[in-house]
Design brief:
The chain is mainly beta and 160 residues long. The protein has one helix and nine strands.
Length: 160
């Protein structure tokens, strides 16, 4: 932090000077955020006795902003890479935590990258099983997802 910036921070902190934040660098205003979308996987066709035991998705030109409901007994990992190529991996820890396909209704909120060089895309797989010893992988792509614009999210954390 340079001397002028330190002085301004000190004066603002003591209430003696009110200077707009944009004076000291790029503002992180709400208008700079990308559009948020709610994602559902409605075209998932699983058998009557099959349950979801895991999933992996890759998002191009977007980041996971929120997972709407993390079930008990699941391990979910999100890699929101600075390149805006995001990965999410999920697996259950106990068989009793297996899910039905209703979990994927508006299960995640994604922020699309502004000025993306690559088109927004979601691809991946859902892992299902009937007996928890053998699994079946269902490949999914954009055609299988329903994207709802103007999604709301709970909170935004900005890094400095």
């Amino acid at each position: 932090m340079n001397r002028l910036t330190r002085l301004a921070v000190l004066l603002v902190a003591t209430g003696l000077l009110l200077i707009p934040a944009k004076t000291f660098g790029p503002a992180r205003a709400a208008t700079s955020l990308g559009p948020f979308v709610s994602v559902s996987l409605v075209a998932l066709h699983i058998g009557a006795t099959e349950r979801v035991v895991g999933f992996d998705f890759e998002v191009t030109s977007g980041r996971i902003a929120q997972i709407t409901d993390i079930p008990i007994g699941w391990n979910i990992s999100v890699d929101n890479d600075p390149s805006w190529n995001t990965k999410i991996h999920a697996s259950l820890q106990v068989a009793a935590a297996a899910l039905d396909d209703s979990f994927f209704k508006e299960f995640v909120v994604i922020e699309k990258e502004l000025n993306a060089k690559s088109p927004f895309e979601i691809v991946g797989k859902v892992v299902v099983s009937t007996d928890f010893s053998k699994v079946r992988e269902i490949q999914v792509g954009m055609k299988d997802f329903t994207i709802r614009d103007n999604a709301q999210f709970l909170k935004r954390h900005l890094s400095n």
